[in-house]
Amino acid sequence: MSITRDDAGELRLGGLKLSEVATSPTYGTPTYVYDLDGMDREALELAAAFEGHPHLVCYAVKANSAAPIVRSFAKHGLGADVVSAGELLFALGAGVSADLVVMSGVAKTDEEIDLALGAGPRGILALQVESAEEVARVEARARALGRVARVSLRINPGLDPSEIHTHANIATGHDEAKFGVPLPRVPEALARIAESNSLTLSGLTCHVGSQFTTTDAYEGGAKVLFSLAKDALARGIALDYVDTGGGFGIDYGGGCAARPADFVRKARALAKVYGVDHLRHLVEPGRSLVGSHAVLLAKVLQTKSDRPANERVAGDPERRWLMIDAGMNDLMRPALYQSNHRVVPLALPSSASATASARVVGPVCESSDDFGLHTLPIEPFSHVALLDAGAYGYSMASRYNGRPLPAEVFVRGGRIVAAKERAPLRAWADERLSIAEE
Ligand SMILES: Cc1ncc(COP(=O)(O)O)c(C=O)c1O
């Protein structure tokens, strides 16, 4: 985590005083602030966990597709996991070589398949095929383009959902999920790839889910994957790599027992058990590289109470709300997954000891525009930070309710090195009004 509080009680991210951003006429609020140094440290720590074994960390661009972040990861040798034409074009533009890009997605368009096959001299490292049916589609496009498509099979390990310890909406490695090739269909998919002159198998892939705070479900997926890889090798099928996916959790305040490196170490140990440890090892982390090294800054617009001042009824606690100018359109995770982001004042009021519980909510006209109950100082304060907002924050943001997308500020060495300002307030209205009947 890159957050500190200085002696004056001011919150800082990567050394930068956050109130300077929140009160600046250029950025103001709502604004995401990212610590690029902290993100680079995460990437280096994860790579070190492979202890020199051939590997590739494919950053899942969906977690945060800001150019300064992905350019920096590319300079450190990371690849990319992309899920759309837009993300593919972005990753290539940010300096990721096509040879280091894998593309997931259960329903790729022909246009997306063509772009992936046409990238670089040999197409991307692998189109991660997610169904036996998709093998035939990729083969047809490769034939049409006169290319050999490098593919991997993203298998669905069919784990028991009760063993995938995360929110149901981000659990992917069970039979009811739309993701990955179901195990009964893996042999036919492998056979079709082996028979085709237009397809070549790069590897086998698995991604069980996201925000795991322990390694057990990840290991469960890896065991199924490695067992299939072992069988494939025994049958003379060549493999360049095994890819155990992403999903490494971060601490949103409730604790996170496993560090990203622990997932890698456990998977490496299992690879030895299955005799596949000589293969290159890919992982696809998104959240763990970026999540803890960013905040969303918001202004306190007003407070609200359910009773007149000084009317307290024993056993019936006062309901208090803190209304901020960031909403579910800026940070959707709480509305989507009931997830929690800690909310803290940027500057601690003088009597920080007196606190009370308040529900922090945004201005959007939805009941789910709710950042949950937080213990906050009673004395007024002007701005807050929502912590650990670097993953699935801006990348999921929308302009719902006619609100502009938040600004973004990038910090390195304690100073601002890049920024994206908020669109003018009228931009949304102008765009919607530009649709006119002839
Ligand atoms: C195929 C695939 N790989 C990687 C990721 C990244 O997961 P995380 O951000 O939890 O590391 C996802 C997330 O949805 C995914 O679907």
Outline, from the CA principal axes? globular
Indicate the structural class.
alpha/beta
What's the N-to-C terminus distance? 54 Å
Integer-rounded radius of gyration: 24 Å
| Bound molecule kinds, no repeats | pyridoxal-5'-phosphate
Beta-strand level of the residues, as a percent range?
15-25%
Oligomer designation: single chain
CATH class of the largest domain: Alpha Beta
- How does CATH name the architecture of the largest domain? Alpha-Beta Barrel
How many separate domains? 2
Largest sheet data:
9 strands, mixed
The helicity comes to 25-40%
Sequence-ordered SSE layout with sheet pairings:
Blueprint (H helix, E strand, L loop, with lengths): L2 E3 L5 E3 L2 E2 H5 L8 E5 H13 L6 E6 L6 H9 L3 E4 L2 H9 L7 E3 L6 H9 L7 E4 L2 H14 L3 E8 L24 E2 L3 H10 L3 E7 L10 H19 L6 E3 L16 H14 L6 E4 L3 H4 L3 E12 L14 E5 L8 H5 L5 E3 L9 E7 L8 E8 L5 E5 L19 E6 L2 E6 L6 H7 L5
Parallel strand pairs: 4-20, 5-6, 5-13, 6-7, 7-8, 8-9, 9-10, 9-11, 11-12, 12-13, 15-17
Antiparallel strand pairs: 1-2, 2-3, 4-14, 14-15, 14-19, 16-19, 17-18, 20-21
Helix pairs in contact: 2-3, 5-6, 6-7, 8-9
This protein binds pyridoxal-5'-phosphate (PLP).
Walk me through what this model shows.
The protein has 438 residues and is α/β, with parallel strands linked by helices. The chain folds into 2 domains: 3-34 and 292-433, Lyase, Ornithine Decarboxylase, Chain A, domain 1; 105-283, Alanine racemase (TIM Barrel, Alpha-Beta Barrel), CATH 3.20.20.10. Helices cover 27% and strands 24% of the residues. It has helices at 18-22, 36-48, 67-75, 85-93, 110-118, 132-145, 186-195, 216-234, 260-273, 287-290, 333-337, 427-433; strands at residues 3-5, 11-13, 16-17, 31-35, 55-60, 79-82, 101-103, 126-129, 149-156, 181-182, 199-205, 241-243, 280-283, 294-305, 320-324, 343-345, 355-361, 370-377, 383-387, 407-412, 415-420. Strands 4, 14, 15, 16, 17, 18, 19, 20 and 21 form a 9-stranded mixed sheet that branches. Strands 5-6-7-8-9-11-12-13 form an 8-stranded parallel β-barrel, surrounded by 7 helices. Strand 11 (199-205), helix 8 (216-234) and strand 12 (241-243) form a beta-alpha-beta unit. Helix 5 (110-118) crosses helix 6 (132-145), helix 6 packs parallel to helix 7 (186-195) and helix 8 (216-234) runs parallel beside helix 9 (260-273). The chain is globular. The protein starts with a strand and ends in a 5-residue tail after the last helix. The mean pLDDT is 94. The structure holds pyridoxal-5'-phosphate. Residues 60, 63, 81, 104, 207, 210-211, 245-248, 284-288 line the site of pyridoxal-5'-phosphate (PLP).
